Amino acid sequence: MKELLSSLDPEHTLVLDYTADIQDENNYFVTWDIPGKFPYIFGIFHSNENNSEIRGNYPLIEERLALAAKDPMCKGMVLWPETSHADTLMLEYVAANSWKPEHISIDRFLEKFCKERYISDGRETEKSMREIWQKFLPSVKNRIRYAFGHKKGMAPVYYIRILEICALNKQGLFRKGANTLEKFAEALKELPELFRLLASLSEKELSTHVRRDMLDIAKSAFATLLDCFMAKIFTLLKDFEEGNEKEKTAVSLRKNLFYLQKCNLLLADCLSSSKEFSLYDSLLKMTAKEGRNKDFEYTLKGNAENSYSRSYIPEILRYCVAPELAIFAEYIEQGIAENTSNWEFPAEFRNKREEVKDKFYEKSLAEMAPDQKKAERELSANLQKAIKLAENLLQEF
Question: Considering the entire predicted model, what is its pTM?
Fold first, then answer.
């Protein structure tokens, strides 16, 4: 970047940055020697690929935004999201700071956010949502983006495309598993109480935007659970391979594989309580328009199930992710039975993934459609089940 900038004229250049939140102390706008020399836009690249949960490297953003706010060469602030419905907190944070950065501290901003967003729903709802957000914030701060290849890189949303992820470097997966558990160690302690608060709130009559926020928070809390179950499995695979208390490790592997699969289906059940997450509902809305292509359902499925875009969609979690996790668990069980000392994820995973994919395309979205009414009735009970899963995960630390 320095070499590139040396060939440009600051009088005729505007740098559009989207790396301000990336955890890489050696490669960002300050190390590029931009402040005070080049006009630039402070930018955050958000919800990239399938990372559509609520997340934000706020400690780093606060530090770097404070620097940019004092620099007359910084000409603005922008969010670069790859999806629209992802993160209300980040959208409002950017809106509050883009013209005049006076609410840089996320903890103080959260008070303002909750008061303005929920006061019209009554003081009890505002109080409940503020408590939920405060319990949830440690998890949000730790769902961060590292530079590609960073030694402390984590394993975000790996479970959602597990058969493809297994083709990556095995030692890298083991390392990222350990990094993920280390990063979330403190935040995980808040999850049982967070799910309890969500379960209690879900039993009440709520406005559309409160229920939407509640489900977004639940979705993201489940994502943290799932990431950590997956990360724990990676670390256990390493332990088993190295011969560390193999019998005990095998028991823990089986438990965590069971919890991972159960958590995935619980998330699907919770998301099914809102049409907004359903692929079938999207199909109905889009095909209501005239002039649609007869093969549009196939195209919509392709946009949803591919590894780049795979995200929090009930039909995807049930009919793509669940069978792939079952295949992965079967392989691990076989390795335990054979007392393996070398986890070599088989090339046939690619073929297995294609088989799952073919079945997904063969079944119509109408057949896969979530039962929203049933999911609404069972939402509180399902969130209460998540409390136990979070407690089980904490016991592994």
Answer: 0.94
